[in-house]
């Protein structure tokens, strides 16, 4: 009977340990997911900014007064 009680206690301890580890992993995955979402948002913003700069440069390159065009676009006149 002592062996059964010891085994039962060990199973309970293992179950509690596994539950704790599972919760910690879930929290870690959530943090990683939130970080990835933040990075994706930053990448999308940067991509939009680069696209706008590229479009502006293409527009200004087609102009004979490209330095004036850039100054007008970015308020650096």
* Estimated helix fraction: over 70%
Task: Name the average pLDDT.
Answer: 85
Strand residue content: under 5%
- Helices, by number, come to 2
Computed Rg:
30 Å
Estimate the global geometry from the Cα principal axes. rod-shaped
> What is the count of distinct domains?
1
| Structural class designation | mainly alpha
Describe it.
The chain has 77 residues and is mainly α. The chain has one domain. It is built from two helices and no strands. Helix 1 crosses helix 2. The radius of gyration is 30 Å and the shape is rod-shaped. The termini are far apart. The mean pLDDT is 85.
Descriptors for this entry?
single chain; 77 residues; mainly alpha; 0% strand
Topology:
Blueprint: H1 2-61, H2 66-74
Helix pairs in contact: 1-2
Condensed summary:
The protein is mostly helical. The chain is built from 2 helices and no strands.
């Amino acid at each position: 009977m002592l062996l059964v009680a010891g085994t039962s206690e060990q199973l309970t301890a293992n179950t509690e340990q596994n539950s704790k580890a599972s919760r910690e992993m879930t929290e870690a995955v959530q943090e990683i997911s939130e970080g990835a979402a933040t990075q994706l948002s930053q990448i999308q913003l940067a991509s939009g900014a680069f696209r706008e700069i590229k479009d502006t440069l293409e527009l200004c390159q087609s102009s004979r007064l490209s330095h004036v065009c850039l100054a007008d676009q970015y308020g650096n006149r």
